[in-house]
Amino acid sequence: MKDYIFIINAIILFSPLFLTFTSCTFIEEKSDVHFVLTGLEEVKSSDSWLVEYYDEKGILCHFELRGYPEFYLSMEKGHVTPVTVKGLSGKKKNLVWGNIYPLSSALNLHAAFAAQVFSGIMEASLSPAKKSLTYLKYFNWGKLIEETSSYPEVLYDKGRIMTSIANGTFKKGDIKALEK
């Protein structure tokens, strides 16, 4: 009988400690991030938008919005992804707003170029998507946004930039305007 009481006391005493250590590995650090488009003038309730981003596994996710384009996404801590919003109707049709999360959750026309470059590399990659995401996580997206936002009227050679980033040879000189 004493053996049973000892075992029961041991289970009661050590179970919180055991549960604490084992449950920590299952806790995902996610937060809901509020995304909003900046620089919008007039939005109609009939306007529609296509939102695209990559989840933590590198899978392209998309959904459609109507009206004012603001939304929440549940993002894992340390996850880096392009988030783009494309106008599907009205005066904003085919315009793209974007940014690289976690640099910013404010989506704009200037940072959309970098988001489209990131997405383009993901789409063209022959590597598994998760491996590509891990590689692209370490690129200095903030600097690319800064450089391309300096001259927003310029159309940049996206193919050249994508190739040099994917090859790991990117340098500031690769940011060139498209030749006419």
Task: Give a brief outline of the structure.
This protein has helices at residues 2-23, 112-124, 129-136, 141-149, 158-167; strands spanning 30-37, 48-54, 60-66, 70-76, 81-87, 96-101, 106-107.
SSE arrangement:
Elements: H1 2-23, E1 30-37, E2 48-54, E3 60-66, E4 70-76, E5 81-87, E6 96-101, E7 106-107, H2 112-124, H3 129-136, H4 141-149, H5 158-167
Parallel strand pairs: 1-7
Antiparallel strand pairs: 1-4, 2-3, 2-5, 5-6
Helix pairs in contact: 2-5
- How many helical stretches? 5
Task: Give me the strand/helix succession.
Answer: HEEEEEEEHHHH
Question: What proportion strand?
Answer: 15-25%
Largest sheet: 4 strands, antiparallel
Kindly state the percentage of residues in helix. Answer: 25-40%
Output the radius of gyration: 23 Å
Q: Biggest sheet, strands in spatial order?
A: 3-2-5-6
Assign the structural class, choosing from mainly alpha, mainly beta, alpha/beta, alpha+beta, or little secondary structure: alpha+beta
Number of strands: 7
Structural commentary:
The protein has helices spanning 2-23, 112-124, 129-136, 141-149, 158-167, and strands spanning 30-37, 48-54, 60-66, 70-76, 81-87, 96-101, 106-107. The chain is an alpha+beta fold and 180 residues long. Helix 2 packs across helix 5.
